[in-house]
Amino acid sequence: xxxxxxxxxxxxxxxxxxxxxxxxxxxxxxxxxxxxxxxxxxxxxxxxxxxxxxxxxxxxxxxxxxxxxxxxxxxxxxxxxxxxxxxxxxxxxxxxxxxxxxxxxxxxxxxxxxxxxxxxxxxxxxxxxxxxxxxxxxxxxxxxxxxxxxxxxxxxxxxxxxxxxxxxxxxxxxxxxxxxxxxxxxxxxxxxxxxxxxxxxxxxxxxxxxxxxxxxxxxxxxxxxxxxxxxxxxxxxxxxxxxxxxxxxxxxxxxxxxxxxxxxxxxxxxxxxxxxxxxxxxxxxxxxxxxxxxxxxxxxxxxxxxxxxxxxxxxxxxxxxxxxxxxxxxxxxxxxxxxxxxxxxxxxxxxxxxxxxxxxxxxxxxxxxxxxxxxxxxxxxxxxxxxxxxxxxxxxxxxxxxxxxxxxxxxxxxxxxxxxxxxxxxxxxxxxxxxxxxxxxxxxxxxxxxxxxxxxxxxxxxxxxxxxxxxxxxx
Length: 475
Hints:
Elements: H1 15-35, H2 78-85, H3 88-91, H4 96-102, H5 154-157, H6 167-177, H7 182-189, H8 225-228, H9 235-239, H10 245-249, H11 295-298, H12 311-315, H13 361-364, H14 377-380, H15 425-428, H16 444-453
């Protein structure tokens, strides 16, 4: 036998194999160029236009695979290629796809939408059993069964397709559950249920208002939501509800705004009527009998702001002085008692001293007249008959308030009043104070003899004081 020369070669690398392979490549390339890559397509593209076709048919891309399948080296994805055509999805923030994206639930389009299943096949294949409904902003945790106990189906709420939601379905279903509550609730808040409800009852009966800024206490705890949140059909509207008292209670304000709008200064949620007023924080603290006075006694007709603070505005009817002391009652009276007045007469033009301190007020202030009461002595102390009007009306020149007698006349008497043993005015003035005589003590005959012996004229002898002004001999 003869020996074979050279190495054994695989058949595919033989000349014939290489020729066949080359022909096959040419045939495949030709078919791809002629029929648009049909060798790599699992089926015909969708040809229907409309909502279920995501806005239009894909059949126009039959000859351009790269329209949806970018080259690996391009850096693009099929999802970015989808959005390049379906621009409306990116422009509408309320679109379901954008809602999911905003919640971090965005996935590739191909996970729900597939093609190449024929011209009339649906582009959407949605696994409703595992669909993440919470990502749409509404939980199905409390929506597992209908009112009659039957399981929920998508069509029960999405009666016009999965892309839409029938708001009226909420009202219709919940009327069967709570026919007494729902009509009033819809009237108060409207039918935009999704504006507040998320399926988890975050803002429903299970809502804990104590976790909000405005904690419900007292009578607020038993209020219906609509009493404060009337017409609020969105969460944003609920959160912007005024929290000050006056916004709700202006109609209950018997003060008519006189105390301003901060009702909480006096009122609490426990009871609107039993207000606690700290009058010490006003400009008129209540002391003495004022503390026991009824509010209406000073605040007539529920008017508080601008109430007069002077005594006379309330006590004019009690003024026994009839205005003669003016209107500043506090000069004498205190809130402790109206009757026990304390008058500091030293602050008047007539300070009380001596026996005047024990005199009753009415002795000088006749008929309760105070203002304009005379301060001259003779207004109360008439000139005694024995003065015979010789001393005028200036009683104080001789008398003091310590006592009417004895009088002090030394300063103005032209002759020493302590002369000899004269014990009274009558000793020298037996007839009248206008005339005097020394002969009550000094014998007239002796005086004549003595003056002659001294060679003194006796012509004016009775006028002793002319020569004896100091009460002594020799003048």
